[in-house]
Write a structure and sequence with these properties.
CATH architecture of the largest domain: Alpha/alpha barrel
Radius of gyration: 21 Å
Order of helices and strands: HHEEEEHHHHHHEEEEEEEEE
CATH class of the largest domain: Mainly Alpha
Number of helices: 8
Distance between the termini: 48 Å
Number of strands: 13
Number of domains: 2
Helix content: 25-40%
Length: 328
């Protein structure tokens, strides 16, 4: 699934920068081939009628073999596979629409999406790691692979699937309660999870844990001897606490913790080609300046308020106050 996951990065590169030639000549050909492979690889689960991947694993956890002894990892249809594939197919469909190409392939991928095994929850309300409810061998495993759809994916959002947000929260809390998040990169991923859940205080708690428990004096992430994932992931998580754009709108201060009462961020980029300067005071938005780099439509939100511009002027900055009223 490595190339399918990587395709999300090259798609995001286009969403942030808007380079249509990059999409046409570099990103889309890779996305297309990967989507074609995944669609051909999926098979129908005779028990459910849904499409599943496999044989495959949920990195890097294992489960207790039902009715037997020992543990195993190989199954048909781990949740992470399906989340990655769902992202890939959706993004490839969108790219083909932008480029006005491969209509037949687009329809094939749309049909595949309709049959792909959905994300499901177990009897305790947590998101299932595998296509059926199995007992984790390590309930506190450092990987939380089955939350790919929360981050870095965009399948679990309050805009589209709010019912899965609660399940995702239970999944994280269960892992942490059993010792999860004990490596730097894992802690960084958890920061991003809580940011996407819009729980600023818990995201902040894990930022401090990353710095105090998993960061060396030279600021390298300590996954002995060093792993860049914690550095990049921690930086991404802090940014996600202050601005998000994965759900079709620019969300300002979505997970601002109480401890960060007053502050600012400059030059934060959002999908759609927007650059934001944000100031806040006493835990509340003070002002936001959003500059359009591409001239795309802009939807901005803050604490339930939204403001929509059907078109923006390339290079122009738009100023907003705490109520998202546009300052002239």
């Amino acid at each position: 699934m490595g190339i399918a996951w990587s395709c999300q990065n090259i798609w995001d590169h286009y969403l942030f920068g808007g380079d249509i030639e990059y999409l046409r000549n570099k990103a889309y050909p890779i996305m297309k081939e990967s989507a074609e492979f995944c669609a051909a690889w999926l098979v129908t689960d005779p028990r459910t009628g849904y499409l599943v991947s496999g044989p495959s694993i949920s990195p890097e956890n294992r489960f207790v073999i039902p009715g037997g002894e020992g543990t195993a990892s190989m199954v048909m249809g781990p949740t992470m596979d399906h989340m990655i594939i769902r992202d890939l197919l959706q993004n490839t469909i969108q790219a083909s629409l932008i480029l006005n190409t491969d209509k037949a392939l687009r329809r094939k991928l749309e049909l595949t999406l309709e049959k792909l095994t959905p994300t499901r929850t177990g009897s305790d309300g947590r998101i299932l790691e595998w296509s059926e409810e199995l007992e984790e061998h390590e309930p506190g495993h450092r990987h939380i692979s089955h939350l790919y759809g929360l981050h870095p994916g965009n399948q679990i959002t309050w805009q589209q699937h709010p019912e899965l947000l609660e399940a995702a929260g239970k999944t994280i809390e269960y892992r942490l309660a059993h010792g999860g998040g004990h490596t730097g990169w894992s802690r960084a991923w958890i920061i991003n999870f809580f940011a996407r859940l819009q729980d600023g205080d818990k995201a902040c708690e894990n930022v401090y844990a990353l710095i105090t428990k998993s960061t060396l004096d030279n600021l390298f992430d300590n996954h002995p001897p060093f792993q860049i994932d914690g550095n990049f992931g921690g930086t991404a998580g802090i940014t996600e606490m202050l601005i998000q754009s994965h759900a079709g709108e620019v969300e300002l201060l979505p997970a601002l913790p109480e401890k960060w009462g007053t502050g600012h961020i400059r030059g934060a980029m959002a999908r759609g080609g927007f650059e934001a300067d944000i100031e806040w005071e006493n835990g509340q938005l003070k002002t936001a300046k959003i500059t359009s780099r591409l001239g795309n439509p802009l939807k901005v939100s803050y604490k339930g308020k939204t403001f929509m511009l059907e078109a923006t002027e390339k290079g122009k900055s738009y100023l907003f106050n705490k109520d998202l009223v546009q300052d002239q």
